[in-house]
Amino acid sequence: MALSDRERAILDFERTWWTQPGPKEVAIRERFELSPTRYYQLLHELLESPDAIAYDPLVVRRLRRLRDRRRRARYEGRSAGEPPVR
To answer: 2, 10, 49, 70: which has the highest count of C-beta atoms within 10 A?
Structure first.
C-alpha cells in the first residue's frame, strides 16, 4: 500500500523540523493538528512500513536507530545519551 499524503508529510517534517523556529511539539500541533503523542504513535507505525523506507531511506533508518538506542537504554536502565556499562 502506498503512503498517504499525511505519511509523506510526516517523513518530510522529520527530515527538516530542526530548521524551523520554536519547539517541535508546537510545530507538530500547528502542521498536523495532532497531539505530539498521537504524532509519535503514527511515526513509529510508519517506521515499520516498507513504503516509508522506499520513500526516504535515510530518514527512516536514522529514526529507527534513534528508536532502537532509546529502547536499549531503557532496557539497560540508563539514559539514551550515556555510554553502555562495560
So the answer is: 10
